[in-house]
Amino acid sequence: MMTSISHVRTTFFDENPSGRLINRLLGDYGMLRLEGVMSFGDTANGLAEVLCVGVLIMLTNPVAGLLIIPVVLLYALLQAQLAPMMSHAREIRAVKIGETLHRETDLIEGRTVFTLYNRQKNLLNRIHRAFGNSMNIQLLYCRLMSWGILWMGMISAAYAIVVYGFLAYGLHVGLITSTLAAVVITAVFNLNNIFFGLAWDMSFLGETASHARRAFFMIDLPDEITQESNLPKVKLVNDEEKVQFSGDIRFENYTMSYRKDLPKILDNFTVNIPQGKKVGIVGRTGAGKSSFMQALFRMVYHRDGDILIGGRSIFSADISSVRSSFGVVPQDPYLFAGTIRFNLAGNLQDVSDARLLAALRTVNLDVDLDAQVQEGGKDYSVGERQLLCIARLILLDKQYILMDEPTSSLDRKTDEQMQRLMRTVLADKTVITIAHRLESLEHYDLILEMAGGRLLREGTPAELIPALRSQYVA
Ligand SMILES: Nc1ncnc2c1ncn2[C@@H]1O[C@H](COP(=O)(O)OP(=O)(O)OP(=O)(O)O)[C@@H](O)[C@H]1O
Ligand SMILES: [Mg+2]
């Protein structure tokens, strides 16, 4: 399951929030690995027990023995009524418990904001309501179970009375011994428990089947390459045929949306980004800046037009060649728990400490290779994390660097570092930056202004910055 999820198209996660996915995966995994196996064994065991009791009764009286068949059918009928209701109640219960947990997580994670606005009471009320709902569904579940137990008890009791009648007659006319009668009485006495256990195990087995269906759905999820290859615009390329992209990046009447059924975001977008240039993208929120980056990564639904690098369509190469051409410096880089060395070298093979230290020196980061990093890297500033990303891209010798500038201002020193790197070690690389501050664009070669998924204006900083400044300050 995890393997297919790791290869699925990214928009899958828009439709399936990660919290829900994790809950489901844990539920499916637990059910299939533990309860599912157990309920399968228990059901087989229960069926064998019913068969034994039936054979035993048959020894005393064939008619009484055969009567177990309609009894089993009645149980099955009851089970068919009850099982879907119980399973539905269990599902609702899981959702309601999930909701309570979700609210509790909100309370813990958002405690600063809630305390600041004095809204804890409001959230606590919601937690209590969610908890009340989950208790109500738990009660409903118990009622359903009691209702089932009552009917099962009545069916078993009726059958027991019939069997006891036959036993009394058999003993009276001397057809059976009292020992056999005693054994049968014990077996019939226990029949209700056996049926109840069987019903319980079968309902779990039914639930296991629904978990298994969901697990197979996850396993069979098409990976994004297979999914993309179904699109008319994409030629599936042999995996062996890696392409080394080089040259200008050109969008030609490119149109995309996030999914087939969603509206177009970049619409008839045309732009040329010359090789080795430093290009800043600006635009109001929702203008399409991030969508532009995702389009380069082929993460979105390609509707029309083309994206060419050095004259070669990125849709005619295999997706990993396309993606590995770009290095990314995210807005809020995530570092892994471990050491700086681990974060820097990652899965690079045979990279010497001297090279790692040289990369750190190039970006002017004064940290020890063995310095510890907390999960996420929150013990390093955004600027430091971005510089660490750049150091890594230098090691990887990426020709195209996509940078998402932090919204909050970088400190002046880090800002100057970035500008210096653009002129030195990144001088021959193509750098595309989503810029949130006009000052950082002063040394760029080209500025693209986007609006509504289109290119509104393009020009040099000298041509555009004064106009942009008055526009974005206004
Ligand atoms: N995953 C998504 N699924 C569907 N629509 C999306 C998705 N991401 C963005 N959009 C839509 O695409 C449009 C462009 O969004 P985009 O994120 O590219 O803007 P942006 O310029 O990066 O904005 P910001 O400055 O706020 O980051 C918006 O209308 C947005 O609602
Ligand atoms: Mg964005």
Layout: helices, strands, pairs:
Blueprint: H1 2-7, H2 12-15, H3 18-60, H4 62-66, H5 68-109, H6 111-116, H7 120-173, H8 178-219, H9 224-229, E1 249-257, E2 269-273, E3 278-282, H10 289-296, E4 301-309, E5 312-313, H11 319-324, E6 326-329, E7 338-339, H12 340-345, H13 353-362, E8 372-373, H14 382-396, E9 400-404, H15 412-423, E10 430-434, E11 446-451, E12 454-459, H16 461-473
Residues 289-290 line the site of magnesium ion.
Structure commentary:
There is one protein chain. A hairpin with a 2-residue loop joins strand 11 (446-451) and strand 12 (454-459). This protein folds into two domains: 2-219, ABC transporter transmembrane region fold (Up-down Bundle); 249-473, P-loop containing nucleotide triphosphate hydrolases (Rossmann fold, 3-Layer(aba) Sandwich), CATH 3.40.50.300. The model has no long low-confidence stretch (mean pLDDT 84). 59% of the residues lie in helices and 13% in strands. The two termini are 51 Å apart. The strands form three sheets. The chain has a six-stranded mixed β-sheet, sandwiched between helices. With 474 residues, the protein is α/β, with parallel strands linked by helices. The structure holds adenosine-5'-triphosphate and magnesium ion.
